[in-house]
Amino acid sequence: MEFTTLGRSALRVSRICLGTMTFGEQVDEAATQALLDHAVASGINFIDTAEMYPVPARSATFGETEALIGRWLAARPGRREQLVLASKVSGPSRGYDWIRAGSADLRAADIIAACEDSLRRLRTDFIDLYQIHWPNRHVPMFGGQYFDPAREQAVTPIEEQLQALARLVEAGKVRHIGLSNETPYGVAEFVRLAEQQGLPRIVSVQNAYSLVNRVPDNGLDEALHRHQVSLLAYSPLGFGTLSGKYDALGLADPARPGRLSLFESMKKQRWARPETLAAARRYNQLARDHGLTPAAMALAWVDGRWLTASTIIGITDRAQLDENIAAFGRRLSPELLAEIDRIRWEIRDPAQ
User: Fold this and answer.
1) Least confident of 144-153, 232-241, 245-254, 307-316
2) Which residues, in sequence order, are bridge partners of residue 313?
3) Which of 146, 114, 117, 148 is nearest to 131 (CA)?
4) What band does 142 get if pLDDT is binned at 50, 70 and 90?
5) 187-221 pLDDT, tens per residue?
């Protein structure tokens, strides 16, 4: 297993991060514990979760993934010190009225309270990397394409959020801080304020990055490089579209159910767009033409990008986990990379 450090910190993480959004919904407790054990035994030391997991988000399961991880840790004395554990505080409401009563703001007090709740569920005294799940201000995200100044509203500013995170760091409850679903402006502003006021500096940004969503290549890459902030790439398989499971029958294939076919709410997301499925078929066939499985090529591509520090994989069974791990460390040929870029030139980023 290869390791890297995040940002300017000494936080050393495996280049494969185990994502946990399926734990507690598609994956029950016994399977969750077995998968966590196998991931750690395979050399993964980096586990990412969030207060709102599992996904799809529901009031009945809010916080359940953290609770599952907490029970797993409690049953394995000494394991916590071997791991880098990341979690996230949800941003302003996106229709989730059970999170802070559907508030359209993420206040400093909310960040403190959410972290305390996560610590309790995770049964740990500290979180290695605590992230804001999505920005408080209006930005185009989760399928949005355009910034609209008319949608701006008064919310808690970045400075106050950063000060709240600083209090958690000072108290020893959080070691390092990061962002998720963030823009180049957000990265630059968090860094500027931290350096100006002597507050904790973000070490990472967790954003979608895959063959069907290369948005980080359009400006975020420069911001990350110049500010020395690491990218944690999530959805490297485009919510399963780049595994090939939807190629033959689309979302209707009963033999290969995935989140996009199992959950109605997922069918409305960017990953289920006809354009995304069509682009994925092109990439998946390209992989087969070069003697690779679609997942192997997609994961190797993300892992091989200079801006990727660690790739977050989502799994539901051990075979999936082993297949994903095997894809890392592979280097794609210059000819194959050129063909990938040619497809992107035609299709761009359908799952933006």
Assistant:
1) 245-254
2) 18
3) 114
4) confident
5) 999 999 999 999 999 999 999 999 999 999 999 99
Q: What span, in angstroms and rounded, lies between the C-alpha atoms of 302 and 283?
A: 13
Structure tokens at 147: 């910034």
As a whole number, the mean pLDDT across the chain is 93
CA distance 143 to 270: 5
Instruction: Give the residue from 255, 195, 259, 258 showing the smallest Cα distance to 228.
Output: 195
Q: Would you tell me how many other CB atoms lie within 10 Å of the CB of residue 159?
A: 16
Q: What is residue 27's DSSP assignment?
A: B
Can you give the pTM of this predicted structure? 0.95
Distance (Å) of CA 255 to CA 28, 246, 250, 252, 258 = 20, 10, 11, 9, 10
- Is residue 283 annotated as part of the catalytic site, yes or no? no
Encoded tokens for 289? 């033409």
Give bridge partners of residue 14 from the DSSP assignment: 3
Residue 349, exposed/middle/buried by CB under 10 A (0-12, 13-18, 19+)?
buried
CA distance 237 to 209: 9
pLDDT of 271 reads: 72
Sign of CA dihedral 300, 267, 143, 284: positive
Using CA atoms, how far residue 184 sits from 93, 266, 308, in Å, is: 22, 27, 16
Amino acid at 319: A
pLDDT digits (tens, 9 = 90+) for 301-316: 999 999 999 999 999 9
Q: Catalytic: which of 53, 209, 234, 246?
A: 53
Tell me the domains of the chain and their CATH numbers: 3-347 (3.20.20.100)
Q: How far apart are CA 276 and CA 291, in angstroms?
A: 23
Mean pLDDT, residues 257-283: 76
Instruction: Kindly state the tokens that stand for 122.
Output: 């995770």
